[in-house]
Amino acid sequence: xxxxxxxxxxxxxxGPGLVDLAVNVRLPRPPAWLRxxxxxxxxxxxxxxxxxxxxxxxxxxxxxxxxxxxxxAGAAEAFTLLASAWRPRRAVVVHPQFTEPEAALRAxxxxxxxxxxxxxxxxxxxxxxxxxxxxxxxVGNPTNPTSVLHPAASLRALARPGRLLVVDEAFLDAVPGxxxxxxxxxxxxxxxxxxxxxxxxxxxxxxxxxxxxxxVARLRAVQVPWSVSTLAGVATVACCRxxxxxxxxxxxxxxxxxxxxxxxxLASQGVDVLGDPRGPFVLVRVPGGAALRERLREAGYxxxxxxxxxxxxxxxxxxxxxxxxxxDAFLTAVREVS
Length: 338
Prior knowledge:
Layout: E1 19-21, H1 32-40, H2 52-62, E2 69-72, H3 75-85, E3 91-95, H4 100-107, E4 112-116, E5 136-140, H5 152-156, E6 164-168, E7 189-194, H6 196-199, E8 207-210, H7 213-222, H8 230-239, H9 242-268, E9 281-285, H10 289-298, E10 301-305, E11 316-320, H11 324-337
Parallel strand pairs: 1-10, 3-4, 3-5, 5-6, 6-7
Antiparallel strand pairs: 2-8, 7-8, 9-11, 10-11
C-alpha cells in the first residue's frame, strides 16, 4: 500500500518564475500587522520558548480550558505525536486526503487501513465505510485535496467509545463561519488546526491540537521540548485575537467568491470541478492530466499533481484559489495549452 509518494506536497511543484497554484497558502506573505508582531519579538529569542500564552489564547478563542490545548509546530507535528503516543489496533485513514497522517503512522511502524471515498459520490463521507473495529481514525474537513466539507453530524457519527477520531481542520478557518467545525469539543474527538494557510506562515510552522485533557497530556509527553518556537507562539496569540478572527472571516468570504469565479471559469472551458468544493482549492480531473500539468508548467503555472493521493490518479489536478486577475491569466493559459 506504499505505492503513493506520501511525502509529496505542493511545494515540490513550485519553481523559479512559476505562478504558484500548487500550494494552498492563501497569502503571499503575512499581513503587515502580523509581521510587526513577529519583528517586535526578535529581541526575546535568546530565551527558551514557552507556549503558555499561546495555549491560553487558543483556549479563549475556542471557549475551552487550556488543558484541552496543545500548541504544535504546525498541524503536521500533531500527526507525528499521535503516531508516537498511540498504539492502535487498527488505524484507518479516510482518503483522498492529506497524506502526512498515513506517512506518520507508517513511519511509527503502524499498519494502516484505507477507506477510499468515491469520486462518483462527490467524495462525500459515509460513516458506515469506516470499519467498526477501527480505534484510530483520521479524516480531513474540509478535505485536502477534494475541498469537500463533511457535515459535522457525519463526523460525530464516527466517534464512539474506544476510538480516537482525529479531524484535520487545517483549512476550516477558510470556510465562512467555520461551518461544520468540531472545535468546540466532542468526546473522543481530536481537532487539528493550522495558522499557516490563512496567514501566510508556512515557513514559521504554527498550529494546535484541541482534545480532552488526557489526550493532550499524552501528546505533550512525547512532544520534543521547545518544538514550538517563540515566533510561532507570538503568531498564535496574535491570530487568536478578535480583530484577527474578524479579518480571517473576511478573507474566507473573499476566498469563497474567488473559488466560485475559478469554478465558473473552468466550467466554461469544459473542465469539471469534482465534488462540492468549500475550501480555498479545487480538484479537477481531465484526460491527460499529467501532460496538461507539464504544459501548464511550461506556460508558467504550477498546479498540484493528484496521483500522490491514495484514491486519485494522474488525471487529477488540484488548483489553489487565487485572486481574479491571477485566475483570469491561468484560465487563458489553460485554454491555450489544452
